[in-house]
Amino acid sequence: MRKEDCFYLGKIVSKYSFRGEVLVKLDTDEPEIYENMESVFVSLGNNLVPFFIERCRLHKSALLRIDFEEVKDETSADKIMGSELYLPLSMLPALEGNKFYFHEVVGFTLMDEVHGDIGVIQAVNDSASQELFEVEKDGKELLIPISDDIITQVDRNTKTIHVKTPEGLVDLYLN
After folding, report:
1. Please, which residues have CB within 8 angstroms of residue 117's CB and are 6 or more apart in sequence?
2. Distance CA 63, CA 26 (A)
């Protein structure tokens, strides 16, 4: 399995018991949907290695406590400490309405209420405190904030996101 075919689920942040159980900090708004997994891919070096799960359950709401079949002591748990966990993209729950996954909207066109077509989403920058659409229009790059206040409609059929950008933002880039 390649990372491009998977989504990031979370990271192993600590050991839970001397029997090799680990705690995973999940990157999700709905941790409860991952309580009954049978397996995950663990990133070890440059490879995704399948690990089978004997038991997993929520721990203090934001963490997932996992007992892997292959990890039965602290030494084995130490070897995977800090590793990232992945699942195949096919396991992502479908989103509706104006909710979307960042990877899903790359290639979508942004349609502004005032300016019309303001470009195609090339990437999503989520490394800063404000997530941004990186949009290209006529060789120029526009950075448009991702916010419920700005996004008015996500149309998956036409691969278009309708936005109402703050006054002057688009002009700043295109004029």
Report:
1. 109, 110, 111, 137
2. 6
Residue range 129-141, pLDDT digits in tens:
899 999 999 999 9
Residue 41 corresponds to which tokens in the numbers above?
A: 């891919």
**DSSP secondary-structure letter at 108?**
P
d(CA 107, CA 12): 32
**DSSP assignment letter at 80:** H
How many secondary structure helices (H) and strands (E) does the chain include? Answer: 3, 12
| Residue-wise pLDDT tens digits, 23-45 | 999 988 788 889 889 999 999 99
Is-contact 37 50, C-beta < 8 A? Answer: no
Instruction: Look at the pTM and tell me if it is higher than 0.85.
Output: no
DSSP annotation string for 140-170: EEEEEE--TTTEEEEETTTTEEEE-PPTTHH
Residue 169 backbone dihedrals phi, psi, to 5 degrees: -65, -50
Exposure string for 120-140, b = 16+ CB within 10 A, e = fewer? bbeebeeeeeeebbbbebeee
**Beta carbons of 83 and 44 less than 8 angstroms apart:** yes
- Over residues 147-166, the pLDDT tens digits come to 999 999 999 999 999 999 99
